[in-house]
Every structure is written in C-alpha cells, then in structure tokens.
Amino acid sequence: MFKYGIDKLSVTKVMAIADGSLVAVLTDEAKIKVNACRKKVEIMAGSTKAVYGINTGFGPLCDVQISSDETSKLQENLLITHAVGVGDPIDKKLSKMMMITKVHALCQGFSGIRLEVIERILFFIENELLPVVPEQGSVGASGDLAPLSHLFLPLLGEGEFWKNDEIVSAKEILAEHNLQVVKLQAKEGLALINGTQFIVSHAINGLHKMKYLLDLADLAGAMSIEGYKGSASPFKKELHTIRPYKGTLKVAKRMRMLFKGSENIMSHEDCERVQDPYSMRCIPQVHGASRNAYYHLKELTEIEMNSVTDNPIVLSDTVAISGGNFHAQPLAMALDYGALASSELGNISDRRSFLLLEGKYGLPRLLTASGGLNSGYMIPQYTTAALVTENKSLCFPPSADSIPTSLGQEDHVSMGSISGRKFNQILGNLEKILAIELMYAAQAIEFRRPHTLSDIVEENFSIIRKKVDKLEEDRILKDDINAMIQLVIDRRFRVK
Is 51:44 a contact under the CB 8 Å cutoff? Predict the structure, then answer.
C-alpha cells in the first residue's frame, strides 16, 4: 500500500499505481497536513495584503488585487483560459500518471488546496475517469500550465474524458457518476495547474521503457557477437575495474552473463582475429554511457515526483513564497541527456546489423545462402538507418531554447515538455531498431550451428523462432519485422 503525501514515490510505484497492482490511499496523516495548509490560505485570502495567486491576478497581472467575492471566479477562469493545448491527445496512462503525481504533491501540505478537491481527483483515478489532454502547448514554466488545465477542466464540468477509446464531454461523465461540479476557491486553480506533472509523467514513462531497452540492447549485442563470431575478451572484469564507470561495469557484467557457457564463443577463442569493430568491442563503454544517463535521469525524476512544484508555496498563516519550483529545467536538461543516450543505443545497434550483412567470418553476404536471386536481409537495415537518422534529428535539446511568455514575466522557460515527448519518441524508434538487430542476429546464429550458446541466449533465440522463421528464400519481411517489434513492446524477451 502506498500513502499519498507520506511515502516516497518511485518510477516503479507510479507505474504500479497506474496499472492497479499497487493500492494508493489518502491517510489521516495526509488529511491533517492538507487541512492545516488550507486554513493558512483562508487566512491570507481574507487579508488586505496582496498575496500572489491567492488574492491577486496571475502572471503580468500579479499587481491587480482581487476581492474575496471574485476569488472563485478567478480560480475557475485560470483553468478555462489556460486550457489552450493542441495536437493529438496523450496516452491515457499518461493522464493517469499526471493525476497520481499531482495528488502526491498536493498531499504534502504546501499547496493550500481543499481536501474535497483532492478526493475528487482520487475518485477520477480510482474509477478510470481519465481526462483528455492535448500533447502540445506547455513551455515547462510555470510548469505545465496548458496540459494540467485540460487535465482538471472536468472538475468544473468542462473539458473531456476518455470512455473506452471514445472522447466524451465531462458533463456526460459527471452525470453518469452523479457528481456535482467542484467550485474552486482561493489558490486552488493555481495549485492544480502550476507544476511539472506532464513532464514528470513523460519522464516516468520513458524511464520505465528505457530500463528494459538498455537490457535488451545488451542482449541484442551479445547475439550479434555470437552470430559474428566476435570475441568475449573485451568484457573481462579486469579491463573495466580500472575504468570503473557504474554503467560500464554493469554492462560488462551482463555481457559475461550472456556468454556464460557458450560453446560458440569457446570454439574460436584462439582464432587469429586481433579485435572486433567498435560497435561490438565497445559495447560496455557505449551502452554503459547510456546507462549512466538513465541513472542520472531516474535520480532527478524521483526527486521531482516527490517534490512540491506549484506556486506560491504556503509556509505559514502570513507567508506564501512566490518562487520558481515549477521551473522544469532540472528535468528538461536530463531528459535531453536521456534522449541522446537512447539515440546512441540505436546508432550502435544499426552498425552491428550492418556488420552482420557484410559476409565475413563464415557468414554469407546479406545473411542469405542463395544471394543474387534473393536479396536476403539487405533492406531492413535501410529501415534502421532511417530510424537512426530520425532519432539523431530529434536530439536537438529543447532545454537549450527559451521563448519569453506572459508579457515577459515568464522570460526564461524550460521547454521540458518537448524534451519529454521527444525522449519517448526516440525510445519508440529504438524498439524498432533493436527488433531488427535481433532478427538479424538470430539469422546469423543459424550459420553457427551446431554450436550452442548460453542458456539465456538460446532461450531468446527460441522466442524469436516461434514468431519468425529462418530466412531461406525471399519473402515479405514486413510481417516478420512487425512480429519482432511486438515481441519487444510486449517484453517477451528474457533479458536477465
């Protein structure tokens, strides 16, 4: 059981809450924190002293004081006017993760929102009432204003929900569940839409995917080396302890595990070849560097998901600090790093696929024994080349850019939402690139029989062969490629 506002979230826990395998609850301890902070806001809202976002306008209108009679309208207008997102809707699971991480932030007792608003969001989460959120429109400061506005418009009876795969009006769904609209009060609109939950949810989703793909890249590399009759020497422990990057050590250890007991590797230990090309020999260094980026992004993401990122932050009956906890630069830069790291996994994978086609060391050219009439596996590498170049083009860091907004009040923004979206787009392409390398590697291994491989590699070879037969003569490869991609997406490979 996870306790909102009390326990610490992690990537694994957010994914588990989202898929229903971990129950998350609102405890009395969290309720006390929320109610205590709300009382502080009510004191400030009744004061004649201007407090940003509580009794003033927003952004460049922060110098306009709002009467207590207009407070509710001010907060509702905030959501309505900021819901200006465009583009396709984000995946439903991302909408759910946004609500989960927002509830956790609100329950820490610094946002000043009423308990009943949090409870309504929890009702949405627990009953799979997932708002429709457009993917474009956030500049990553003041947090994710547009996406979060769309996420919480349904509280007001506005906006839209998903109903299965259909988009329906919030009014219709609220009526089905006999729910009244929520009338927002002082500070609540601001607490809902100031924050980085769109960005952090993209980071969580990407990290969950990247962790598996890092392991899968090691497997693909090992299978390619087996097919190429490459050397296992570059993975010896002694080599890497004298340059002990965490990611490198991890990958080298995994490669040794993937080669353990391989008859094929042992069969050519004393051959005359001096060294393999970099894309095989330098797997620990390259894959390891990508793992280091993963570790860094995971560390920062887990700090962010357990932080308070709205504005102002309520500290006492008289103090509400208008700061910049909503600014997503810490995550934006790390997401750009993660995007580069993921792109590089695809880059080196494509090079290994290319090597398997060259016809060296006992492999036939294009991995077909009857070349000429048959093109064999010539063309799928065109696809990996295209995907690799697409990923390279996506590596420009949005966090290096900033366009002033809000009449210059918000004069430096993170663009972290774009970083998060591109990170996930690159990972989607990486799934396809690794799928094709694994298909190539399995074909190459066919030419190394009757030598056997490690138990784990043999198991994965069998997984491939249950979906994709050995290529004897030319056939339509699209079905094979799609089957391989689905194996990757469904996490069918044993990577540990």
Answer: yes
